[in-house]
Amino acid sequence: APQKVPMSPHEPNKYINYQRIQDNLEIVRKRLNRPLTLSEKILYGHLDDAVNQDIQRGVSYLQLRPDRVVCQDATAQMALLQFMSAGIPDVAVPSSVHCDHLILGEYGAESDLARAKEVNREVYDFLATTCAKYNLGFWGPGSGIIHQIVIENYAFPGALIIGTDSHTPNAGGLGAAAVGVGGADAVDVMAGIPWELKCPKAIGVKLTGRLNGWTSPKDIILEVAGILTVKGGTGAIVEYFGSGVESVSATGMGTVCNMGAEIGATTSVFPFTESMHRYLVSTGRPQIADASRAFAHNLRADEGAQYDEVVEINLSELEPRINGPFTPDLMTPLAKFKATAQEKDWPQDISACLIGSCTNSSYEDMSRAASLAKEALDAGLKVKADFIVTPGSEQIRATTERDGLLEIFRQAGGNILANACGPCIGQWARHDVKKGDRNTIITSYNRNFTGRNDGNPATHGFVASPEVVTAMAFGGSTNFNPITDTLTTPSGKPFKFTPPNGAELPARGFDAGQDTYQAPPADRSRVAVQVSPASQRLQLLEPFAPWDGKDVEEVPILIKVRGKCTTDHISMAGPWLKYRGHLDNISNNMLIGATNSENGEANSVRNQITGAFDAVPATARDYKARGVRWVVVGDENYGEGSSREHAAMSVRFLGGAAVIVKSFARIHETNLKKQGLLPLTFNNPADYDRISPADRLSILGLTTLTPGKPLTLRVTQPSGAHFDIVVDHTFNENQITWFKAGSALNHIAKSNSQ
Ligand code: F3S
């Protein structure tokens, strides 16, 4: 029988429940009578009711009991504000909050961190006291990036984790199924309500061969992104298997799973490997290492498990890739990068190279990157581009500092920023490039949408392995191929990099560095949470009004969006992050990045009542003031990107009734439902073209809203003529109760008070 092992050194009284996985799987196996994939085992192993749960991949909604909830500081504010308003004294499952998103990278770790503590004091105090009050672990500013801390402390093979950040799947590197969710989902689970997930399909990625030379785990996911594209993983879990898996480190698998978010996958998972065992031992969890090894038969796919799609990659033949610009699935092999950059007229000078982040901060990453930097440094070379390092955690920082790796980067001309997201989330005060200047940057981060890193739409962002990024910093140009080309040293000699080498784990063990963790106090009754009514950053929530029981009748279209519309377009990050806990203030960023189909411009729409063009949020506020609701019409994969529920909350707050698109990204669609909005899709995507911005839309059939039954969208043209089109929805019974209550939270609060 599985042994009793604490889930984390920080929570010695909460145990891993392998027994439940085993019991559930016994029931599910009898019912399904077929081999199971790994992700099926983990998910079904966490079913709330394995006996009665309907299980059909891509169809059913699973009711699940996650082991853990993790929140980063930007999303935690709204999640905790929501949790507070549900009136529950204590989180129902182990949960933690991580301060990583609000630290602006400018001069370097020490001064940037000191300033962030000052600037964000009221938010950090709110989070620290709320965590203490409601029994959550609190990782303060400087502790590191959520996903790195989760893999170092909390993830374990077979775990089911939800996190209010889209790169939560990073924990797949330790064999966990970790899913990025909106704050509202986190609130459900913290409130003890089962978490609902549409039963994912399974995409298998078979790895053969062995990683070698310049190729790193990053290149696996860059290749997968190129094959499957940003939409390819939608509604699916990506499962890796095959003999090649054994040559990948746990942290390398973390990188692969992390960036699975870029193809829209629900999450990505790896089977139990000896590299996971090594990582668990090295991070102070030998008991978990042994328990999971003993449970390994349930931590891999059954022989003959069926996938909905299979991709095969031979690691022995895989070569480094550089993906971008502007989208992570535009894949170019490093060998062709120079020619492609010239052909496509990408800016050839590289202005900045950035390594680290939650995606690529492991000891292995840092030591391999440092091996290249050291070699170049020894030859007398310095970086030509700005070179920036964001360590993923205090533990990684302290360990790589102790082992001299950070010093190598500094000597080569690099700048070490705080253990935080920094430039990855647009928290980057750049002084070298003006807004509008075309320039190229290469990062080992995960996401490279327009304006993501520095808010400059003319910055061409590329993503590559930390090794390639580091070497490119010395080359300084897209014309440099570090594998084949030479650089010239100050003494005029040719210099060529040898392939990187590093260590999977630190030989001397990890150094935990400074203690930045705050455990909840034993007596939580006297902890007071304060939110000032005058605060510009935090605002207690007012519930949204329940559904009025009527159809939506002839409302204006706030904006008909053309083309890509990610959550960054809907609820921009960067400077707006500071208003994450203040719904009214943050709503001033609503949809300001989306392109209006009428004029091809961002943040300029015609007010259908006054006829004047104005900013999108201002126009919405005008409709709201007049008591007029409105809808958004959108294109394909609407809401791809992050899990931020503000992208849904602002639309609701400013009076939106529905978002009608060709297709949705999963998390955003669910978030819209949670806020009491109607996410609808054109049954015939071509109907998108039949709608003009000046039309009025009615949504008919709401009084008989039923799972699987389409609704009618009546389009009334300015002439008064109208036509009907069919729109689909994915509401299930439970989600319909959210719509009727006005939001999922209204529904929770109501059930709680009964
Ligand atoms: Fe932070 Fe970027 Fe990761 S924003 S959580 S470092 S994706």
UniProtKB/TrEMBL annotation:
Pathway in which this enzyme or protein is active: Carbohydrate metabolism; tricarboxylic acid cycle; isocitrate from oxaloacetate: step 2/2
Catalysed reactions, as listed in the record: citrate = D-threo-isocitrate
Superkingdom, natural source: Eukaryota
Note on how the cofactor is bound: Binds 1 [4Fe-4S] cluster per subunit.
InterPro entries referenced in this protein's UniProt entry, alphabetically: Acnase/IPM_dHydase_lsu_aba_1/3, Acoase/IPM_deHydtase_lsu_aba, Aconitase/3IPM_dehydase_swvl, Aconitase/IPM_isomerase, Aconitase_4Fe-4S_BS, Aconitase_4Fe-4S_dom, Aconitase_dom2, Aconitase_mito-like
Keywords, sorted A to Z: Iron, Iron-sulfur, Lyase, Metal-binding, Mitochondrion, Transit peptide, Tricarboxylic acid cycle
Protein's UniProt keywords contain Mitochondrion: yes
Annotated Aconitase A/isopropylmalate dehydratase small subunit swivel domain residues: 556-684
Domain spans labelled Aconitase/3-isopropylmalate dehydratase large subunit alpha/beta/alpha: 40-476
Subcellular location: Mitochondrion
Molecular function via GO: 4 iron, 4 sulfur cluster binding; aconitate hydratase activity; metal ion binding
EC number: 4.2.1.-
Annotated Pfam families: Aconitase, Aconitase_C
UniProt cofactor(s): [4Fe-4S] cluster
GO biological process: tricarboxylic acid cycle
GO cellular component: cytosol; mitochondrion
Membership in a protein family: Belongs to the aconitase/IPM isomerase family.
Protein name per its UniProtKB record: Aconitate hydratase, mitochondrial
